[in-house]
Design a protein that fits this description.
- The chain has one domain.
- Helices cover 39% and strands 4% of the residues.
- Strands 1-2 form a two-stranded antiparallel sheet.
- The radius of gyration is 24 Å and the shape is elongated.
- The longest helix has 10 residues.
- With 103 residues, the chain is mainly alpha-helical.
Length: 103
């Protein structure tokens, strides 16, 4: 079976789709801090494993690291990062819990 019949000619209409790319709007977007933007926040108290809250389960398992990380993240000032979020579109997740998930 030959692959020659599957090759797209360079002058095809598919390549024209990418040739005339639109220049994004250069107007600055409003920042989240300028618009009073609300962030999506979760509630760790509502996370249940079986019949036990996550916090209680971690303590029973002797896992202290998540509490140390949570305290350190609570002490950070996240406003410098939150200013970079646009004030339009879907509400973003709050940065502190997202960083906690990563760590």
């Amino acid at each position: 079976m030959s692959t020659a019949s599957k090759t797209v000619a360079l002058d095809s209409e598919q390549f024209d789709l990418f040739g005339a790319a639109q220049v994004p709007d250069a107007r600055p977007r409003p920042c989240a801090s300028d618009t009073g933007r609300r962030f999506i926040t979760g509630n760790a108290q509502k996370v249940i494993l079986g019949t036990t809250r996550l916090e209680d389960w971690l303590k029973q398992a002797g896992q202290r690291a998540p509490f140390v990380v949570a305290r350190l993240l609570e002490q950070q000032d996240w406003q410098a990062f939150e200013r970079h979020y646009a004030g339009t579109g879907r509400a973003p997740y709050r940065l502190r819990p997202m960083m906690g998930l990563i760590l």
